[in-house]
Amino acid sequence: MAIRKKITVSTIKNMKIEDERINDTELAGFHGRISSKGVIKYYFYYRLQGKQRNYLLGSSDALTPVQARDLAKEVAGRVAGGSDVQSIKKETQRQGKRANLKLWTYLDRTYYPYLESLNPKTADRALKALKSNFVELLDRNLADITPWDLQKWVAEKRKAKRAPATIRYALGRLKAAFNRAVEWGFIDGHDLGKVKVPSVDNTIVRYLSNDEESALLDGIRLRDHRIRDERASANVFRKQRNYPLYPSFDGLRFVDYFEPLIITAMNTGLRRGELLALTWDDVFFDERYLVVRAANAKSKRARNVPLNDTVFDALKQWRSQNSKTSVVFITSKYDADTAVTDIKKPWKKLLTDANIHDFRFHDLRHHFASRLVMVGVDLNTVRELLGHADMKMTLRYAHLAPEHKAAAVNMIG
Fold first, then answer.
1. How confident is the model over 170-180, as pLDDT tens digits?
2. What stretch of H or E contains 47?
3. Residue 222 dihedral angles phi and psi, to the nearest 5°
4. Where do the Core-binding (CB) domain residues begin and end (predicted)?
């Protein structure tokens, strides 16, 4: 129930919850509201171009009735001059929030939920990469991060011997986050495109020589023997003391996920993320192919990759060892839905034992493509197997097939 009285110290003091609202008799539009908890706030009501507005002046614990009326008169004057004071106030508040939006706050509360909606499997990794790469900028306001800040970051990473591709990749992730911030109105724009980044020579392809391939496969077998010997030795120790024995590797081809993972990478050309995301529902043994789901592919396009005898036999035996699991490459058969996430330690040791240098896990993909080209597979088929969106990336393997060029020239001889 609204009452009409001049708003004074006395009328405000005597206002009851059931009064709900008091309209000032001296200034049209000036009124006070009381909440169910007894809190009184002053407002100024006005119309602008037929639209109703209710402008909050402040609460009774911060403003006296006289101060509230004076403020209402000032607002009334601005309204009379054609200003939409309510919209101006909201925009000012929004600008204030934008000016104080920290990078870490934006990443955690806004950008991460967006990433999660796109791909829950990679969102955590993407957020972790952003925060670890740009830790010195996390407490900076989003709008205050400049190209110069990032140019200094690039210089520091170059000094620390970071690979150009790593620097470009990290900076690309940050630019993507800033692009979304512009779209969503958190910042008006950014100039991060002005940051000069080191160029990457994508034409250089690292693949294994025949000797290196043999050394790599021998290294995997040596690792297998070492793990088997350690398990047998541990069980002898435990048996002597009547401790429960660890599961035996007798009769099993693989001691863990690592060997089938390497074999699959070398014979399918799948990316690391595509490999680790594989489930047994993606492997079709009867038809002898596997599927890279669109959600797990870099190009966001699904593709089928045939299984040659080597990878078919490896996956078939690995499946027989893990008949109740859902994920292909798991750390333990007792956890059927937890995929391997980190292979750095065994991969690094394998390269050391095999005496192979300057070779990344991703280069197994190049090795797969290079072998195909060198035995005469056409580049378009290689492109389809690798899942490249266009031929540009696949063309870097073209120099491995000089006989094709010679054959083309001889056709007009």
1. 898 998 888 88
2. strand 40-48
3. -65, -40
4. 105-182
